[in-house]
Amino acid sequence: WLKEVLAKFPETKVVLFTAYADIELAVRAMKEGAFDFVVKPWDNAKLIATLQNAYKAAKGKAKKPTKQQTAEPQAEMYWGESAEMKRVRQMVERVAITDANILLTGENGTGKEVLAREIHRQSARCRKTMVSLDMGAIPDTLFESELFGHTKGAFTDARTDREGKFETANGSTLFMDEIGNLPLHLQAKMLAVLQNRAVTRLGANESTPVDIRLISATNRDLHEAVAKGEFRQDLLFRINTIHIHIPPLRNRKEDIVPLAERFIEHYGKKYNKVGLLLQGEAADKLMVHSWEGNIRELQNAIEKAVIMCDGDMIAPDHIELHAATRPVTEA
């Protein structure tokens, strides 16, 4: 019903009531557009305040917001205070202004795409939008078309000409996440594009010049992949002009609480709970966790905590963490 109401009346503020205080249900409801989430039995004062806030929010947004206004804001680069990230920042400031190809490595969730966007922001190509491509999300049969484009009739479903990501990123930066997933038979074609600065669409006879700056990312050991015959060594040399490794969050503990506070501020605004603070005990709970999912796991935990918090302080009970599957080691 929430979806039905918002589909027909997108300006309406919907407050959900439930007798089941389930955290996953609350998170899903808020993400799908509910203004707030009230659990039965409720406190009358809090209930009235919630409905008044919803009413004020509705009055303040009488006009239907545009797509640009409602777009999720891009995460800003937070460098932190750790020595590891200070070294990363120094390297980025030296190489961002160049056109050198960069390989970003690090565990899942460490913020490789955020760092790629920061490099692009500091580059001479920043006036054009960075083009991103997640290689781990593309079916094997579509790799070539996504990267290099195709002409009408090149294959069964090719009903029109279509440019690939290399052409889309012309004059800008192309970010290829999980580049280790690129099939071996297409690695030679990608190497040729990087060397010749020209791309040939699937089904075409002529090539199109392209001017891109490539930033690649992976959580794989590509040197090991080369040894196994799963990745071309010459392509690795080409994409690895500059190598930047992002340390896991558990090795930069001094950045955990400041990051959490930034996420609290962000999601506080998103869910109409501005001014939330992090209790000291809650901060301690964050500090002793292993964060195998890194910054992405922290961000998800804080979003849930903001949704479930019904006061002005995020307490330890609001923070849901999963037990570590590996031993916690000191940084």
Point out poorly predicted stretches: 62-74, 327-331
What is the count of helical runs? 14
Instruction: Give Rg in angstroms.
Output: 23 Å
Biggest beta-sheet profile: 5 strands, parallel
Q: Specify the overall morphology.
A: globular
- Fraction of residues in helix: 40-55%
Cα distance spanning the termini: 48 Å
Global structural class: alpha/beta
Order of helices and strands: HEHEHHHEHEHHEHEEEHHEHEHHE
Enumerate the strands of the largest sheet in spatial order, edge to edge or round the barrel: 4-5-8-3-9
Beta-strand segment tally: 11
Strand content: 5-15%
- Average pLDDT taken over every residue: 85
What does this structure look like?
- With 331 residues, this protein is an alpha/beta fold.
- The chain has 14 helices and eleven strands.
- The chain has a five-stranded parallel beta sheet with strand order 4-5-8-3-9.
- α2 packs across α14 and α12 (256-270) crosses α14 (294-308).
- The longest helix is centred in the N-terminal third of the chain and has 17 residues, at 44-60.
- The radius of gyration is 23 Å and the shape is globular.
- Mean pLDDT is 85; it is low at 62-74 and 327-331.
